[in-house]
Design goal:
Order of helices and strands: HHHEEHHHHHHHHHHHHHH
Number of strands: 2
Oligomer: single chain
Length: about 500
């Protein structure tokens, strides 16, 4: 398959922002001005600024190799991040299939307590929702968005216990009893111990008091959380009321003036530095956030492992399937660790700084070395060299952490939505008895050699002659001949 040219296949502002032109044009302009100064002084005055170009080839080759290594290393991290998300997709499918298909719907535990089909479906679907929540939590974890109060994550895990005491009463709802998953997301303005269960929220709303309460807390103080576009994937999730406003599923930084004119960022830095120094005496020090931290993806895998232990205690899962489920949960944990390694381990600052300073020195002295041969062509030649080398350097820096909101980063939202669709497709499966659909008139299992349906074949079993061997089932040798003919026909038809 021939890929289309991205530059000429409908160029748009989004595609333009995905390039590195906005990042390199200030430096390209600076080195072009240096080249213009060197060319004009050499051609229009008696001063000759040309210097020998002995080191041009050697240094250019070495610098090109170093930049190529820098870009290749960053792309390897980009590709590894994509592979890790493929592992999450595969493990999520496997876990969901084991839970949904192999865990029985009608169960009786060791205490002879039976579980109805409805209860079993609710239990298994809730655990599949936790599998979906894992990928969503990894997305927020990699984007350094802590906590669980997001529109695409909270509806999937809001049923998990909040306190160490099971069946906690209001007297047990204390901060010291709060589990790490919720403690790390605590907010002083919206304390968790004041949250009411959904049943109490509904009754409270019927009395006419909840409407005013939530209008004062959520609608006035909270910003607009829902996206105004038609595409709203969070609408497919459960509608669960939270005691605090939920953050948006996607929070990309707004594109501002300094993104298009990065050269002026030094003035913003100077202004912010002076402002902090002037206001240091007049303002109190900000109180830090909660010291407790919680790895949300790890917490979810702990609940999945606890569910596996629950199934094994009651004998509802065979050892072989339990091993498969354990391996897939371990695969999720391993993948999460590798993704964290990619996102939190940039290239050393000394390497990046030395490479950029070396490139700047090379581009600065480049016009002095080529002006005697190129003349006024030194200006566009230096601009092209600066655009080429600086562009590759910026590309390597941009893709070394592919989990953000840049146009060239991995589309983590799309990956999570794909996993969501696949898990819902798995839970839509009704796991029927194979005999209910195999021996039907729609099935032609022996085609193309024999195009009769399975229903006709079973009704006229005597159509196949008896086997030549007494120890074989009657008719098996004829069926094997048909299958052999199938192989020859398919091999002939499918080859060009």
């Amino acid at each position: 398959m021939v890929a289309s040219n991205p530059l000429f296949n409908g160029m748009s502002l989004k595609k333009f922002n995905a390039t590195v032109i906005n990042d390199v044009w200030p430096e390209v302009s600076f080195f072009s001005l240096v080249a213009a100064m060197v060319a004009l002084v050499t051609k229009l005055t008696s001063h000759n600024l040309a210097i020998p170009n002995t080191l041009l080839t050697v240094l250019g080759t070495v610098l090109g190799l170093v930049i190529s290594f820098r870009t290749s290393t960053a792309y390897e991290r980009y590709q590894e991040g994509r592979k890790m998300w493929t592992n999450i997709t595969i493990a999520s499918r496997n876990i969901a299939q084991i839970i949904w298909i192999h865990v029985p719907f009608e169960r009786v535990d060791k205490d002879k307590k039976s579980m109805t089909t409805v209860q079993s479906v609710i239990e298994k679907k809730s655990m599949v929702n936790l599998v979906q929540a894992f990928s969503v939590s990894v997305k927020h974890f990699l984007r350094e968005e802590p906590g669980v109060y997001y529109q695409d994550l909270y509806p999937l895990i809001c049923f998990l216990p909040r306190y160490a005491t099971h069946g906690a009463t209001p007297a047990d709802m204390l901060p010291q009893n709060m589990l790490p998953l919720w403690q790390a997301s605590e907010h002083d303005d919206y304390p968790l111990h004041t949250a009411m269960p959904p049943s109490q929220q509904r009754s409270f709303s019927e009395s006419g008091k909840q409407e005013a309460s939530f209008s004062s807390n959520d609608r006035t103080d909270a910003p607009t959380l829902r996206r105004t576009k038609t595409f709203d994937p969070e609408a497919a999730l459960a509608d669960v009321q939270s005691h605090r406003p939920l953050g948006p599923a996607r929070s990309p930084p707004e594109t501002g003036f300094f993104d298009y004119f990065p050269v002026f960022r030094i003035f913003a830095w100077m202004f912010s530095t002076c402002s902090r120094r002037l206001s240091r005496k007049s303002h109190k020090k900000k109180r830090k956030g909660p010291l407790a931290e919680s790895n949300v993806p790890l917490e979810i895998t702990i609940y999945l492992s606890a569910y596996l232990a629950h199934l094994l205690r009651h004998g509802w899962l065979t050892p072989a399937l339990a091993t498969g489920l354990t391996n897939n949960i371990a695969s999720l944990q391993d993948t999460m660790t590798n993704l964290d390694r990619i996102g939190s381990t940039p290239l050393p600052f000394a390497y990046q700084a030395h490479l950029r300073m070396s490139l700047w020195l090379y581009l600065f002295f480049l016009p002095f070395q080529v002006v005697s041969s190129f003349g006024y062509l030194t200006i566009p030649g230096t601009a092209f060299a600066a655009f080429l080398l600086l562009g590759f350097l910026e590309i390597g820096q941009e893709i070394e952490n592919p989990f953000g909101y840049d146009e060239n980063d991995l589309d983590l939202d799309s990956f999570c939505l794909g996993i969501q669709r696949e898990l819902h497709e798995i839970t839509a499966h009704t796991t029927p008895d194979p005999t209910q659909f195999i021996f039907s008139s729609w099935n032609q299992p022996l085609a193309p050699a024999d195009r009769r349906s399975a229903e006709e074949l079973t009704a006229n079993a005597e159509a196949y002659s008896h086997s030549d061997h007494a120890d074989s089932e009657p008719g098996m040798m004829s069926i094997r001949r048909v299958l052999l003919k199938n192989w020859r026909d398919v091999d002939r038809i499918t080859r060009q």
